[in-house]
Amino acid sequence: LKPLMLLWLAQNIALTASALLRLDHYVGLYGLTWLRLAAAIWMGLVALGLMLTLWQIARARPNGWLLLRCALLGLATLYLCSFVNFAAVIARANLDHPALDLAYICTLGPMASAELSAHPRGQVCVIDPPQITGWRDWGFRAARVLRYTRSSTKG
Fold first, then answer.
1. Overall pTM surpassing 0.85 (yes/no)
2. How far apart are CA 31 and CA 78, in angstroms?
3. What is the 3-state secondary structure (H, E, C) of the chain?
């Protein structure tokens, strides 16, 4: 039964990698969106979780071992994603895309304002940078966007 389980897990990892490749082709044709980016992150987590399960079965590790590693993987993903300005990533990917969807780019909000102002194609869509008027408005990503827009307008 163990070899069949390992084969089934390997097949699921291959299916997840295939879905990621298909998503990459889809993004290449139609551009990057919030949901496509979230789907890519989720599929990566699923593939890593399946690999951890494969490792657990192959090395006869206890269930607590797998649970701890999957929890750490999820927490590490959340932690790393908290530092990424996804609106800027989406804007950067789509501004270089041949089929530019300005209607979607303009809805990315103030967090994408630095990318839009720096790119010649993005200057069609004028979005004000995030406003920080008090301590409740402050955020790590918003402060970075403001710092970048202020330094790019000075130079």
1. no
2. 24
3. CHHHHHHHHHHHHHHHHHHHHHHHHHHHHHCCCHHHHHHHHHHHHHHHHHHHHHHHHHHCCCHHHHHHHHHHHHHHHHHHHCCCCHHHHHHHHHHCCCCCCHHHHCCCCHHHHHHHHHCCCHHHCCCCCCCCCCCCCCCHHHHHHHHHHHHHHHC
d(CA 37, CA 25) in angstroms, rounded, equals 13
Rounded CA-CA distance 70/74 in Å is: 6
CA distance 130 to 116: 13
Six token digits for residue 84: 């990424």
Radius of gyration of the chain from its Cα atoms, rounded to whole angstroms = 20
- Each residue's pLDDT, cut to its tens digit, for the chain (155 residues) gives 889 999 999 999 999 999 999 999 999 999 999 999 999 999 999 999 999 999 999 999 999 999 999 999 999 999 999 989 899 899 988 888 887 788 888 888 888 888 887 777 767 777 777 777 777 877 777 777 777 777 766 55
